[in-house]
Amino acid sequence: MIKVKTPATTANIGPGFDVLGLAFKLYNEYTFEEIDKGLVIEGCPDVYNNKENLVYKSFLLAAEQLGKKVDGLKISMKINIPVSRGLGSSSACIVGGVYGANAFYKGGLTKEEMYKIAVMIEGHPDNISPCVYGGLTASMIENEKPYTVGYDISSQLKFCALIPDFETSTNEARKILPKTIDFKDAVFNVSRVAVLLKALETGDMDMINIALKDKLHQSYRGSLIHEWDDVKTICEKGDSLAFFISGSGPTLMNITKDENFPERIKEGISRLKHNWEIKMLETDKGGAKAEIL
Ligand code: HSE
Questions:
Q1: I need a surface site. Which of 1, 56, 182, 266 has the fewest CB within 10 A?
Q2: For the domain 2-151+284-292, what is the CATH code?
Q3: Single pTM value for the model
Q4: Measured from the CA of 12, which atom of ligand 1 is nearest?
Q5: What beta strand segments (E) does the chain contain?
């Protein structure tokens, strides 16, 4: 039996649209077992219990690359990453399936090869990179080949996720974006990405607060996230200026050094119409892992 553990991730981190990503110590676990024939999936909502399941589809695609045919497979899942909330649940499924197939068939694929397959399935690399490699990553694609590099991140920084009881669709959140942007807005974001990476390494909160701003996606997406303005105001009153949409949302994220931050926003958040879970997350440094049980 094979067990794969994949971390949750946040993508974009303000100005780094489709580029930056960070892994968290919040994991999904998938086990893969051979059965005589067919497909059995356990541990996931009924709606995903079929052949369209992303873990299964990714397993099949990786098996195909390895020249293997899947006869019978049982997948058991322990889902801790909230689904469709902007915390990398799709990437966790994809990486889980790809790592699972490689270990299951003793495929001998390198991490880089599995990374490429996973990015090919997902289409953009910003969540896949930290899910595979852990930590803070910056990624790019050139001639369909993904590249990623890791950056250090200060251990003083904590991430406070506000996870609502509603979902957003990444497709919808991408459709809402403009086709072209102003040159000065591009400069605004490029400058902030570069500065943000150093500020995250040194833990300079003043610099992080400014460098997290963006002009490419967040203002357009605010309309898809109910109570976004209210949550932002509550966080600002709680002394957080380091606020961004996690991936394509709807989770909203704060960067803070203060462990008491959740206490300061708890009451305000509890008065909102939607239920927002407040969750402190720490950085994962190791990325996805597969083991033979
Ligand atoms: N960079 C992606 C987006 C992350 O914001 O659309 C979600 O997959």
A1: 182
A2: 3.30.230.10
A3: 0.96
A4: 1
A5: 2-11, 20-34, 38-42, 72-78, 136-142, 145-151, 158-164, 243-245, 252-256, 276-281, 289-292
